[in-house]
Amino acid sequence: MSQQMGTAPEKTPRGAISIKNVTKIYDPDGARVLAVDNCCMEVEAGEFCVIVGPSGCGKTTLLNAIAGFHGISEGEICLDGELLCSGGHQARPGSDRIVVFQNGALFPWFTVLENVTFGPVMQGVMHKKEAEEKALHMMGQMGLKNIARNYPSEISSGMRRRVEIARAMMNDPRVLLLDEPFRAMDALTKTVVHQFLLDVYDKNKTTVFFITHDLDEAIFLGSKVYIMTTRPATIKKILHVGLPRPRDFRILASPEYQRLRDECIAAVHEEAVKAFKAGEREM
Ligand code: ADP
Ligand code: MG
Question: What is the CATH number of the domain that holds 245?
Fold first, then answer.
């Protein structure tokens, strides 16, 4: 972990997620909703995996099951070959699977540094001083050191999202789970946070499970883009994004990028039309 943000890590890639025949039925007051149906996915260790699909198709449901926020009805999910959850067994949330949410979740009464060090100190994984040293070192490499003493309300939304990613990386997670983290951002801010996340990924090769509606974001960031069907969710198509890394915005002008984009749009559009006809609302 000491070399986490510096040179390329030499550790074995971790964070392989195996989703096997997963079905999730919500049953609030008998109103049975089949959200995920017999879904199978194999995410390799160190993969930047992006999930796209129509609103309400079941993306967050899958992510929440991996995070341990709720259980699944059938099937199983394994992490690095070990059973994480199954039909009868819900995963526990853990620091090996950190979630970065759309709406952000920094403690407003803590400084940025206190936010970043809070988790490992609270869990007793690190002493305060050790956590601060590590956080400041990491934040220095992430270009965040000069805001360490600021409060979240004093920094921009793009900066806050970067801090959240830094906070997640403090735990050296096996998997970084991101649920439409940049959804509400303007295009300009998005380009900055995209580059930030790509840098973090290039340096750490942590497995990323990233949900988005934004197809450009999906292709720009991802190694594979999993296009989901309209609810109940299954995988409709896997797009292998062979664009070289490190990536920067110039790749958006390449013919290969355009080809991938066209392919992605065709598949997503078909599902979006189905979802629209089925009367799904924007969530
Ligand atoms: P997505 O993230 O792809 O937009 P979700 O995974 O949030 O979709 O939801 C999938 C489906 O499950 C939706 O139809 C949604 O209404 C339903 N759903 C999600 N959470 C619940 C819940 N707690 N109770 C009942 N239905 C739910
Ligand atoms: Mg969602």
Answer: 3.40.50.300
Q: DSSP assignment of the chain, as one string?
A: -TTTTSSPP-SPP---EEEEEEEEEE-GGG--EEEEEEEEEEEPTT-EEEEE--TTSSHHHHHHHHHTSS--SEEEEEETTEEEEETTBPPPP-TTEEEE-TT----TTS-HHHHHHHHHHHTTSS-HHHHHHHHHHHHHHTT-GGGTTS-GGGS-HHHHHHHHHHHHHTT--SEEEEESTTTTS-HHHHHHHHHHHHHHHHHH--EEEEEES-HHHHHHH-SEEEEEPSSSB-EEEEEE----SS--GGGGGSHHHHHHHHHHHHHHHHHHHHHHHTTPPP-
| Domain limits for position 269 | 17-96+173-278
Please give the model's pTM, rounded to 2 decimal places. 0.92
Q: Does 59 contact ligand 1 (Cβ within 6 A)? A: yes
* Same domain, residue pair 249 and 123: no
Q: Ligand 2 center to residue 53 CA distance, Å?
A: 10
What does the pLDDT look like over 25-36, one tens digit per residue?
998 788 899 999
Residue 61 near ligand 1, beta carbon < 6 Å = yes
